[in-house]
Each structure stands twice: as C-alpha cells, then as structure tokens.
Specification:
Elements: H1 2-27, H2 37-64, H3 74-83, H4 94-109, H5 114-188, H6 194-223, H7 225-268, E1 331-335, E2 354-358, E3 367-372, E4 375-380, E5 384-386
Antiparallel strand pairs: 1-2, 1-5, 2-3, 3-4
Helix pairs in contact: 1-5, 2-5, 2-6, 4-5, 5-6, 5-7
Length: about 400
C-alpha cells in the first residue's frame, strides 16, 4: 500500500511538472526542444493519413449500409458482434426481402394470373439482385473496410501511444535543461555546490538519451505509413473490382428480366405488339421510357400500322403535310428526349425545344401532329411535356 501511494504521489508530481513546462512553453516563457524537420514531416503525413482514412472508412460504411437505424438495426448489430468478437450472421438484403414479398403475394393473387406470374418473375430477379448485393457487401467489408479499420484501431493507436510518449520525453528533457540552467546560474552566485550542477547534468544526459531513443522508435513507426498506403492501394483496387462485378451482375439481371417480361407480354397481349410486324413504322424507345416492359401496356413509341382519319397512300407512309390544321386545339409542348423520324410522316425532335402540337379526329392517342416553323409531322406523346 505504501509503495502504491508513493508511486501515485510520484506520478502526480511528474504530471504536474510536465503540465507546468507545457504551459510555460505555450506562454513563451520556457524554451522548447524542436523535433527535426524529417520527423515533423512524418508526423504531418501520418495525421493526414489518419484523418482521410477515417473519413473514407466512415463514408464507405454509409455507402454499404446507408441507414444505421433502419428496421433491421444492421450496423448496430454488427457493432455488438464486433465488440463480442463473434462472427456476424448472414443477413437478408432488402432486395431479397422484396423478392420474397413478391413471391408470397403471387401465391395469394394466383400464379396463373398475368399479375401473379409477373410478380413471380420480378420477385425471382429481385432475389438475385439481393444476393449479388449481399456478396458485394461481404467482399467490400473483408477486402476494404477491414484493412482500414485495422489501421485505425491497431497501427494508429500504437503510433499515437508512441507519439504521446515522445512528447512526455521531450517535456522531461526541457525540464532537465531548465534545471541545469538554473543550477549553473545559482553556482555562479555561489548559492549551490558543484554537486547540484553535476546531478542536474546527469539527469539531462539521461533525459536526452531517452528522448533520442523514443524519437527513433516513433520515426520508424511513422515511416511505416508508406507501406500502409501501398496496402490500402491494393485494397482500393479490390473494392473497385467488387463494385464493377456487382453492377455488371445487376445490369445483366435487369436485361434478362426485361427480355422475359417483353416475351411474356407479347404472348399474353399479342394485339399490343402487333405493330412490331411492320418494321417501317416501328420506333425505338428512349432509355427513360420503360412502359414497354410492363404487363399489358403497349410501348408508347411503337407506331401503328395505320392511322384512321389521316389521309395516306395505299402503299406508302402517311403524308402529314397534306393534313389541314384544325381551327382549335393548338398547344405548346416541350420535347423531353431526342427523336429521329422513321419516315416522312414523322417529325424529328430535339430535347428541350418547344413545338406546337394538335390532334385530328380519329388519330391514334399515342401521337400528335407537331409543327416547327414550316415543318410538320407526327410526334409521339411520350416524348413531350404539354405546357398549355
């Protein structure tokens, strides 16, 4: 008990002495031993590495698990498993959960109905997307997040500990320098014996040795930051590779899903796709329009093989310029997407331009007559935003 009390008193004294020295240095009333330029540069580089690694780590966590307090409590659960040093169980992704809901709904709606069969198809692909997402999350956590976390919680803690120790050794060294200076001043005034000066100089030599040793240890640790950058560079490449694989899988699944839905729609609703038989009147949908993939919905940009109410030649395309304008029904419209006319009856469009549109009796509701100056032709409604 006496030993512990003495040690506690001694530690308190050392702490107080260092605090006094630190305060005097800040106030400019005490001299401070400066570190060499190389060591200062290493410290600055290490601080920069730590700060940016921490930001990248936190934001990657947000990217992989955007909402830490969702209904699954995903990241909170992971935190407790990490603290308990236990393996994190495999978790159902949102895509897999959505797919399961769709499959369950199809059972109630009837798998033989158009809606039920489509729910089954979409649900299966949602499950595949969810599985790809889970694999991406696991790969990214192992190959990218874990190395960054190991650096922050392992290497950086060691570096920080040695830097604090170096700072303490520096304070001790400056305290000894101050004692030697005071002892020599007192000796000059015959106030102290030479033994006091010798003792202070001996303490200074010991403090200098400990400071130099600690500076070398800290320098070696800080120089290891270069190898840390190399390791994190490799991890970054693996993270990008995992992202590329994941997005490629998603793209492939969505293309396959669209083909299956288009095929199922053409079998279930053949009349909606009858216009595909005439290649001269078919148009290609722009990427923003996706209604062609929905059950029972005709693609808005597929041109009909005939348009009642508008004069046309028996074997040639519709001649819109021969159609007379109605006296009413003119409206301004903004073009949403570029559109290339497929024949002389249609009008090519440029995104964001303004045109005048109107309809004529008996015209297909998916099309309007558009005018731009002296040019006139059919335009698809889905490419327009009617303004007035």
């Amino acid at each position: 008990m006496d030993f512990n009390l003495k040690k506690l008193t001694s530690d308190a004294g050392v702490f107080f002495t260092r605090a006094v020295q630190f305060t005097e240095e800040k106030l400019g009333s005490a001299e401070k031993t400066e570190l060499d330029a190389h060591l200062e540069n290493l410290i600055a580089r290490a601080d920069c590495t730590k700060n940016w690694t921490e930001k990248i780590f936190r934001q990657t966590e947000v990217l992989l698990q955007p909402n830490p307090i969702d209904h699954t409590g995903a990241r909170i659960e992971e935190f407790f498993y990490e603290k308990l040093d236990k393996k994190i169980p495999s978790r159902t992704t949102n895509g897999e959960l959505l797919g399961q809901y769709m499959l369950d709904a199809a059972k109630d709606f009837g798998p033989g109905t158009p809606y039920g069969s489509t729910l089954i198809t979409v649900g299966e692909y949602q499950s595949r997307l969810g599985g790809a997402e889970r694999e991406f999350l696991q790969t990214s956590a192992i190959n990218f997040l874990t190395p960054l976390r190991n650096f922050l919680e392992g290497d950086w803690r060691t570096i920080s500990k040695e830097r604090r120790l170096l700072e303490n050794r520096r304070l001790d060294l400056d305290i000894c320098k101050a004692r030697v200076k005071k002892a020599k001043q007192a000796e000059a005034k015959a106030a102290l014996w030479s033994e006091e000066v010798d003792k202070a100089e001996q303490e200074l030599r010991v403090a200098q040795t400990e400071f130099d040793r600690q500076a070398e240890v800290t320098r070696l640790l800080l120089e290891g930051i270069s190898s840390t950058h190399v390791n994190h560079l490799r991890c970054l490449h693996e993270f990008v590779e995992a992202q590329a694989t994941y997005y490629a899988q998603c793209h492939q699944y969505m293309q396959e899903l669209q083909k299956e839905l288009s095929s199922a729609n053409s079998d279930t609703y053949p009349n909606s796709f009858a216009s595909n038989a005439n290649p001269s009147t078919s148009a290609t949908c722009p990427s923003p329009v996706s209604s062609a993939t929905l059950p029972g919905v005709s693609p808005p940009c597929l041109a009909s093989s005939s348009t009642p109410g508008i004069a046309q030649e028996p074997s040639g395309p519709l001649k819109i310029p021969d159609v007379q304008q109605p006296s009413t029904g003119h409206r301004k419209a903004k073009v949403l997407y570029d559109y290339d006319a497929h024949d002389t009856s249609e009008l090519s469009l440029l995104a964001d331009e303004l045109i005048t549109v109107y309809t004529v009796p008996g015209m297909d509701p998916d099309w309007l007559v558009g005018e731009r100056g002296n040019q006139k032709g059919k335009v698809p409604v889905t490419y327009l935003e009617l303004l007035s």
